Structure formats: structure tokens, C-alpha cells
Amino acid sequence: MREIQRKIGFICDMDGVIYHGESLLPGACEFLSWLEQEGKQYLFLTNNSQRTREELQYRLRKLGAEVDAMHFYTASLATASFLASQEPGGSAYVIGDAGLTNALYQAGISMNDIDPDYVVVGESSSYSFEKVSHAIKLVLAGAKLIGTNPDFVLPTNRGIFPGCGALIAPIERATGRQAYFMGKPNPLMIRHALRCLECSREDAIFIGDSMETDIVAGINSEIDTLLVLSGVTSVGDLVRYPYKPRYVLNGVGDILSGAP
């Protein structure tokens, strides 16, 4: 526990780590208070591209936890940062919601449905045949295809919805072009988060509940990883993977064990 507590930067997944459904997980509030009291640098990561930082802040507030909006980092923000570094002042045709379009605007990427540099796809409540057909035409005309994350499913309080990986698949199949995905397990998202924290990877730790996205992303980024068993992974699942996390705990509240 002391090794974990000495870390300066904490990068955390959200669902399965801080909350599940409409409830905070045991120990989550105490963990958040500890981060603040100890002056830790921290970010909450999510592959969901629909929500803005402010919307994520509001969600945690409704659950009973107050966290500043700047402590959230989404796949939309990582995508926008990547595109701005690749094509400063570039343009994009976007299939996505406010979290994605706002992030792109703030990064200097303009919206363009005629001859964009990129076609960018994220989770969207306004997904349609017309938008997909237009995206296919633009990709065939030379636009580069970008996905905010490779997740095929999007768990919500109303059930399972198609994730970005499923929504972008028709465009990939119709064009023969493979999308480049920015979200976890792409290690670039972790590296972007470290830059936001201004923290070295040696002084940071990544906390997640999924071996297939969280832990492998941390390993690929050469950052210490902590698997919590409060989400989708159980102890019995660990033998299925050829890699393992540095630490395994029941939940984030266990980090405080022995803390002053």
C-alpha cells in the first residue's frame, strides 16, 4: 500500500472503479477525499465520447461526489489533441455528440462536410444511414478515418447500446479502410493524460477494472497498473491473460489501508 500511496499522479477509470450504475462504489468517497487531502494529481479517464467534462462532473455530483471538471479526461479530448498535433487547424466530418464536437472545436478543428481532412466517429444518439453514407463518400474521397474508441458496446443505465467500434464498422467495411482508434487500450490516451498531469510515468499509476482495456493500456504505456475487482474482472479471470497488473485490490478504498 505504501508504494501506491507514494505515487504523485493517479489516472483512474470511472465505471467499475468509482461508481457502478447509479451508485458510488464502497470506499470511493474516501478515496476522492484522500486524493485532495494529500495534494495528489489525478484524472478520471473514460472511453465514452458523448459527455463533456462538465456533464461528467454533474453525474458524479448527483451520485454524491464533488470533483472539479478539469479532473476528467475523455476519449474525445484525446482524439482532439491527437488531430490537432497531426493536422493543426484541420477539419473533420463528425458523427458524434456534444462531448466530441466541443473537444474538436476547442482544439482548433473545424467542422467540414465537403472535403474534410478526417471523418471522426464517436458514440452518437443521432447516428443515421444518411450520415454513414456521407462518411463513406468522404473516406473514399481521401478523408482519414478516426474512431474515438474501439469499444463495441456502451453500457448504460437503460441497457447495452452500440459503442464506437460497432458504429464505425459499416464505414470500415464499405471503404476497406481501417479506422485509427484513440481511446483505451491505445497507450496514447494514457500519455496524453500524463501530460495533463505534468507527471512522469514513474511517479504515476493507472487504476482500472478491465484487463482488456485498462490494464493493457497501462502496460503498453509503461506505467504501474492497479486492477480493482469492483468492476468487470474477478480474481479467477486473471489466469486467462498473458500479462498481469502490478497490483490487485478489491477496490480503491483499499488504497487507504494504513494511510495517515
Outline the structure in words.
This protein is of the alpha/beta class and 260 residues long. It has 2 domains: 2-47 and 184-256, HAD superfamily/HAD-like (Rossmann fold), CATH 3.40.50; 77-181, Rossmann fold. It contains 9 helices and 15 strands. It has helices spanning 2-5, 28-37, 53-63, 75-86, 98-106, 129-140, 164-175, 187-197, 211-220; strands spanning 9-13, 19-20, 23-24, 41-46, 72-74, 91-95, 110-111, 118-121, 144-147, 153-156, 159-162, 180-181, 204-208, 224-228, 247-249. Strands 5-4-1-13-14-15 form a 6-stranded parallel β-sheet. Helix 6 (129-140) links the parallel strand 8 and strand 9 (144-147). Helix 4 (75-86) packs across helix 8. The mean pLDDT is 94. Belongs to the HAD-like hydrolase superfamily. It comes from Syntrophus gentianae. The active site is at 13 (nucleophile), 15 (proton donor).
